[in-house]
Amino acid sequence: MKQVITERHYKDRLWARVQFSVSKEGIWTVQKVVLDHNHYLASPNKLHKLMSQWRVTEADKMLISQIREAGMKPAQVYEFMK
């Protein structure tokens, strides 16, 4: 069985993690869950600000590229896309 550990590395090590094993048949099994955190969790009204929640559609990427090529500065693009 292959061991898979998912963990994020930032400036300070985060303690929360999930460890999986994957069988030869491709079945994933949770082996270990650590829910301890070395920081406060984000409140629900701030979740959209987390990097993991950022999403840009392909259409928006194309639009951003076009308006940047037209000379709009990044701060202006941000304001335009809000």
- Please indicate the count of domains: 2
Structural class of the secondary structure composition? alpha+beta
Biggest sheet, strands in spatial order? 1-2-3
Low-confidence parts: none
Report the span from N to C terminus.
46 Å
Shape: elongated
| Number of extended strands | 3
Count of helix runs: 2
Please explain how this structure is put together:
By secondary structure, this protein is an alpha+beta fold. It has 2 domains: 1-40, no CATH class; 42-82. Helices cover 24% and strands 22% of the residues. It is built from 2 helices and 3 strands; from the N terminus they run βββαα. The protein has helices at 58-69, 74-81, and strands at residues 2-6, 17-22, 28-34. It has a 3-stranded antiparallel β-sheet with strand order 1-2-3, with no helix packed on it. The radius of gyration is 19 Å and the shape is elongated. The mean pLDDT is 80.
